[in-house]
Specification:
The protein is mainly beta and 363 residues long. The protein contains one helix and 32 strands.
Length: 363
């Protein structure tokens, strides 16, 4: 009987040791998975696709948006940066070192990143690591690998403004468009046409009536889904239009080489003849611009108060210019959920809280 007891204890000890060995091996396996950023039971978040940074972009920053979760995204020549209110993450650092020019969050919560020279990246934040990315270039049907602008229309198709024309992606395939700029009124053409110096598209927006307004280096156009027509005012076309938006009142704004213009559905009104690179409407209906003064040649951010826009000669309020990007080109503008104004420049991103301007460079 005693021998039986001893034997039972021995078996118990061996079984316990075997369990410990299994447990130790499991811990090692889990530890290795954690070190590789791959948790088996809980797939890693999109943070694993990028690199957390102590600072924001420090190169040319062209486009800024805020997503549905409140994160701020910046398309810059040193990467796509996401700011969660505390820290920055260079989302594309491990994927591509291309110069990023544009960023869009689509209706499904996924993102599109446009580059100069490397096509477009589709980013699904629910996927782990580099699996979150899908790359589109001319090999997949994109019109051109230089993509300064991205826009999603009311039907969910994503449009890409490239240096050779427009690409529309319906989720399955691309359809490409090139305009015959020599004719005053023509349908958009598809396929490969002879190169044109003014085929590059800076901006596209669909208005509440379903018409598409297209700003290019050449003549701005309106496209109704069948035909396109050149915009003309008093016999003059609108050339090198950099940004087009539709405001909350249904007015269409064109910003570019010919200044800032507002179209109310009947009449074009010029607000300023300064070169305007970007136009943006905030939640109060004020209009913000990044522009170059025609006399001094200095760049800056200005605000046209909504009430002042009713005047024949509205006067803009210049925000303080005592920041490092003073007199240097400014680009995309965003009003964040907290009311602060973000804008891009040649050396990164800046935030204006209504009183002061701060940068997010490395210190």
């Amino acid at each position: 009987m005693q021998n039986v007891i001893v034997l039972s204890k021995s078996l118990i000890i061996k079984r316990k040791m075997k369990k410990c060995v299994h447990l130790f091996a499991l811990l090692l396996l889990m530890s290795g998975a954690w070190c590789n950023g791959q948790n088996i039971t809980n797939p890693p978040r999109s943070d694993t696709a990028g690199v957390i940074s102590a600072h924001g972009p420090e190169a040319i920053t062209r486009n800024i948006i805020q997503d549905r979760k409140g994160n701020i995204w910046m398309a810059a020549f040193d990467g796509i940066f996401r700011y969660d209110g505390k820290s920055f993450t260079n989302v594309t650092r491990k994927v591509n070192s291309a110069r990023f020019f544009s960023v869009l969050e689509d209706r499904k919560g996924n993102f599109w990143f446009g580059t100069i020279g490397s096509g477009v990246y589709y980013y699904d934040p629910q996927q782990p690591g580099e699996k979150a990315f899908r790359h589109f270039t001319t090999a997949e049907g994109l019109m051109d690998n230089n993509v300064p602008h991205i826009y999603e229309d009311k039907n969910g198709s994503v449009w890409f403004g490239t240096l050779k024309g427009l690409s529309r992606y319906d989720g399955k395939q691309f359809r490409n468009y090139r305009a015959n700029w020599g004719a005053p009124f023509t349908g958009l053409e598809t396929g490969e046409l002879p190169p044109d110096n003014h085929d590059d598209v800076n901006s596209i927006v669909e208005d509440r009536n379903g018409k598409f307004w297209v700003g290019t280096r050449g003549n701005a156009r309106v496209y109704d889904g069948k035909t396109s027509s050149i915009l003309v005012h008093n016999g003059q076309t609108f050339t090198n239009v950099r940004t087009i938006i539709e405001d909350s009142g249904g007015n269409v704004w064109l910003a570019g080489q010919d200044g800032l213009w507002r179209y109310d559905g009947t009449t074009f009104t010029q607000i300023t003849d300064d070169f305007v690179g970007y136009v943006y409407e905030d939640q109060k209906g004020n209009i913000w611009t990044s522009s170059e003064n025609t006399v001094s040649g200095k760049w800056g951010i200005s605000r046209y108060d909504k009430k002042a826009l009713a005047d024949k000669k509205p006067v803009a309020t210049k925000i303080p210019s005592d920041y490092q990007a003073n007199d240097r080109m400014t680009f995309g503008i965003l009003e964040a959920n907290d009311g602060s104004i973000w804008f891009g420049s040649l050396d990164g991103v800046y935030r204006y809280d209504g009183k002061t301007i701060r940068d997010f460079k490395g210190k």
